[in-house]
Amino acid sequence: MLVVVWLIFILHPLRGTYANEEGDALYALRLKLTDPQSVLQSWDVTLVNPCTWFHVTCNSDNNVTRIDLGNAGLSGQLVSELGQLKGLQYLELYQNNISGPIPEELGSLTNLLSLDLYNNNLTGPIPETLGKLSSLRFLYVKLFWHLFAFFFSYLNEEFEMLYFVKSLMIIMVTDHLFVSSQG
């Protein structure tokens, strides 16, 4: 009996750490964003899980499946920790002032259906890792390139990489809409 109580005591903190891993990842994002409209005010890492936070949707297993922060007045940068949200299906961050690169860790979100980063100030290429997302249906991105020529030298390569995502239906880059013939 003492051994059982000891095991419960020892293993309990591990369960809490795992359960809040998604909360830690989202909180890392919160720390990198400026939030003048206080839309992230409910994002409290001390809560049991992030399913009680505004703009976060979870499934019945309490895994984060959706983040809806479009048009929220946010600025700052995306964080690599977003790649830890393994059940994430929708990442909606359109119409903010988010800058910097798209983290390559987003390529580990194998359940991702929609990635909407449109109308931000993102820079750099679309990460090659996004080409591995076989569930991805919609990709909306507006990238600001320092040199116009730099953009065109990488654009063809990026579309070739994304072409292999058989499920991809719509790619929107800058102000052009490309509709895949696949699907």
Structure description:
The protein contains 3 helices and 10 strands. Strands 1, 2, 3, 4, 5, 6, 7, 8, 9 and 10 form a 10-stranded mixed sheet that branches. It has a domain at 21-148: Ribonuclease Inhibitor (Leucine-rich repeat, LRR (right-handed beta-alpha superhelix), Alpha-Beta Horseshoe). It has 183 residues and is of the alpha/beta class. The longest helix has 18 residues, at 2-19. It has helices at residues 2-19, 21-32, 148-163, and strands at residues 33-34, 56-58, 64-68, 75-77, 90-92, 97-100, 114-123, 138-144, 170-173, 176-179.
| CATH homology superfamily name of the domain at 21-148 | Ribonuclease Inhibitor
Instruction: Give the CA-CA distance, first to last residue.
Output: 57 Å
Helical amount: 25-40%
CATH architecture identity of the domain at 21-148: Alpha-Beta Horseshoe
Pfam families: LRR_1, LRRNT_2
InterPro entries: Leu-rich_rpt, LRR_dom_sf, LRR_N_plant-typ
Protein name: Brassinosteroid insensitive 1-associated receptor kinase 1
Keywords: Kinase, Leucine-rich repeat, Receptor, Repeat, Signal, Transferase
